[in-house]
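cron nightly-structures :: item 1 of 1
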Amino acid sequence: MENITDQFTNCYKPVKALLIYAKSTDNVQEGAMDTYVESYDIGKEGKPVNAHPLSDRETAELARTLSYNNGVQQGFLRCRGLFPEHLLWLDATGIGSAVWLTPQMEVDLFFTESLGIPSGKACVPQMIWRASRNQLSVFAFKGKRKPTADTPLYHAPFFNVHANGEVCMGTVSIDIQRNTSLEDFMLLWQRYFFGSYFSHTIGEARTAINIVQLWTTQVQQGCAFPEAALIATDQKLKSLIQ
């Protein structure tokens, strides 16, 4: 969750008001309304004063303000080139979020000493990631083909993951800026997830074999991830893009 404590000390005061006049409301549905915008300054007593037509400078300031959509800058999740091959879905409006996949691959994993699992390189399953600036969910999937909307999702076989796929990032400091590109956004979340220490299970076990045994074997033997260890959820990929 984003830390907004410092915002409570900020004092925002009204400085400008806009009044929109419409010549006719008959064509509002078609967006053809003839309008005129009048700007008011806000006086010391909080009352509108100095009514005047909206100036070019004020129009430019308004355009800059509207370039933020619910606090997300237009540059957020903007792709630097062609869409990444592993991207499955993107919503750059609102809070901004993306869904992407990663293949079965070898990564460095870190485990707390209390688990008794040695940290090291291990092969992880094919994964589906869904993330916004402040929250990450992960799942696993089977098959060699690119997932479709009806592809079944499997529980991500990791510690620190809730039954609904949401990841408990613990004390990891998440720093994703409002101008972060799509490519960096995906890479950062993968680094945060795999770069943190796995420490505990949340709720019931969601692997077909003992999770400690699973990752001990993966680290020590360096074998391909056993898909038989995955347990299906009641969700399909389309549930992540609604």
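cron nightly-structures :: done
Residues 87-240 form one domain.
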